[in-house]
Amino acid sequence: MQAPVRLPRAREARIPTDKLTGYALDPAHERGRHKARVFASALGITTADWRYLHDQILENLPEGEVRGTRITPFGVSYEVLVMIDGLNGATQPVVTTWIIQADQPARLTSNLGGHPVTGCENQPMAAQHNILDVVELLVDSGRWPAGTIGTVVEADERLALVEISDERGHALDFVSLPQDALATRPSHPVARIAS
Length: 195
Fold this sequence. Notes:
This protein is an alpha+beta fold. It has one domain (10-184). The protein is built from three helices and nine strands, in the order H-H-H-E-E-E-E-E-E-E-E-E. The strands form two sheets. A five-stranded antiparallel β-sheet has the order 8-7-6-5-9, with no helix packed on it. A four-stranded antiparallel β-sheet has the order 1-2-3-4.
């Protein structure tokens, strides 16, 4: 029997606050609100509990099983199943997605599946689309036609990694596109929790 694959350097992993408070636990985010609803109902975790979720993910990540990997322009992406103890007494599997760039520690980029998930770093950048922006594809990309809506989970001056999710917020795919192949969707201003 083969031992499960674990995330490299999992004990050094990082979770940027805004990925939790401004997306996965934000009930007002156009795409993240669905994930926020699942976290609240399945685990009793809301925006106010972001630090608890942050700590639960990092505490349980070293034992999480890698379910898949993929090479992206931003580094190697890992899908890891992590067990989370909810504030409501339930324990649920949460599929998390991490990116490892060169010799950097893993950084949470997103969440998938039918259970809660999270994360990405909100860095200042010269790009026109920022992390957590809701965008529309202006060109076809693989099976996703122009007009598909997604959320930017990673970006640099040239490219953006966009999470495509269903109407409930379950991630279906990630596509990497040039910045100019995306249009920002208007959204309502949302109050952010100070970190």
